[in-house]
Design a protein that fits this description.
Blueprint: H1 28-35, E1 41-46, H2 52-58, E2 61-64, E3 84-89, H3 92-102, E4 132-135, H4 146-161, E5 165-168, H5 177-192, H6 214-225, H7 228-241, H8 246-267, E6 273-277, H9 293-298, H10 304-309, E7 313-320, E8 326-333, H11 338-351
Parallel strand pairs: 4-5, 4-6
Antiparallel strand pairs: 1-3, 2-3, 2-7, 6-8, 7-8
Helix pairs in contact: 1-2, 3-11, 5-7, 5-8
Length: 363
């Protein structure tokens, strides 16, 4: 878990653009493999930005479909109301092609939509004339790296030159998205991961002597099997769900979650997509924030809203910093309207001078 892929049991993943930098996370390995040319496409899971963040920091396309568009059958559950599976690819057309295969109903997943996926192969004329793109300017006022803001503005200008209409939208409750997410997601993780007790699933600790009891086996199994970040989230979630705190924390967070969704619904009455940076900063150095979980969590500020609301979202390459680190441009769309996001993304990709850039570690 986490947005840096430093907490993997296999060790940290490195960013192909700069090997001393994180690739984003938690699907950092999937993004790095595509960015390094090791695979034409990969599959990630997005609970709070875990497809889009690594896509942004590795300079590839990452698509989180609408909740229910892709079956979660077989997925290791983190937060069941937030998790969604999606592709990471070099191009928007490739993302559409992979989504076309992944999407559709599944009788083994009750949350999978019965709505058949649209034909995504006809989306790429490069035409966005008349498409309305909303920007929540207030959310961009603080904490965003100047190079990220410049790249975001340049991407909007390219779309505007192609005929898109850019306007401001108001998402007043988006400022609460990170605290809401870090109540809802750990609470669901605490519940989902309770099954990993050494009896039914996964790792089981080896005990010394026959006198060791089942309680010791549980404790040692979970201590050995979960990493530091997973343990931190289980403890946060267990606390939020405990007697005396459930209503004050978890229930209240779910109410604010509904307000965030209402904000987006109002915005989509006037616009076709909402644009914002994918991450507030470029990739940071490995180890730079590992002892500061709060700073790490604040990196999710632009991505968690799409998971809390179940809306589709895509991260697109938006150029490089002066240090040649990738920057991501994010679009959030109406429910089950991945087609509009892919169409806008294709238009941006056609004009982008960075489309042919490859990292030093490209295979």
């Amino acid at each position: 878990m986490g947005s840096s892929t430093e907490h993997s049991a296999y060790g940290p993943t490195r960013n192909p653009w700069a090997l001393d930098r994180i690739p984003g996370g938690s699907s950092g390995g999937a993004a790095a493999a595509v960015a390094a040319g090791q695979a034409p496409a990969s599959i990630g899971t997005d609970t709070g930005g875990s497809i889009r963040q690594p896509a942004a920091l590795c300079g590839v396309v990452g698509l989180k479909p609408t909740y229910g568009r892709v079956s979660r059958y077989g997925l290791l559950a983190f937060a069941s109301s937030l998790d969604q599976i999606g592709p990471l690819t070099w191009t928007v057309a490739d993302a559409a092609a992979v989504l076309q295969v992944l999407a559709g109903p599944d009788p083994r997943d009750a949350t999978a939509s019965t709505e058949p996926p649209p034909d995504l192969s006809r989306l790429f004329p490069g035409n966005v004339r008349g498409t309305r793109i909303g920007v929540p300017r207030v959310a961009l006022a603080d904490g965003v790296d100047p190079e990220v803001l410049d790249a975001f503005g340049a991407a909007l200008a390219m779309l505007s030159d192609r005929g898109a209409e850019v306007c401001d939208v108001d998402l007043p409750h988006m400022q609460y998205a990170v605290p809401v997410y870090y109540l809802v997601a750990p609470a669901e993780a605490s519940s989902n991961l309770a099954r990993y007790d050494g009896v039914r699933y996964g790792h089981r600790a080896k005990l010394d002597g026959a006198a060791a009891g089942v309680s010791e086996m549980y404790a040692r199994t979970r201590s050995e099997g979960f990493g530091a970040e997973v343990k931190r989230r289980i403890m946060l979630g267990t606390y939020a769900l405990s007697a005396g705190y459930y209503d004050a924390y978890y229930v209240h967070a779910q109410r604010v979650r509904s307000l965030i969704r209402n904000d987006f619904d109002r915005a989509f009455a006037a616009v076709d997509a909402v644009a914002m940076p994918t991450t507030p900063t470029p990739a940071f150095r490995i180890g730079e924030r590992i002892d500061d979980p709060l700073a790490m969590y604040l990196g999710d500020v632009f991505t968690v809203s799409a998971n809390l609301t179940g809306l589709p979202a895509i991260s697109l390459p938006a150029g490089l910093t002066q240090a040649r680190l990738p920057i991501g441009f994010q679009l959030v769309g109406r429910p089950f309207d991945e087609a509009t996001l892919l169409r806008i993304g294709d238009a941006l990709e056609r004009d982008a001078p960075w489309s042919d850039e490859r990292p030093p570690a490209f295979a």
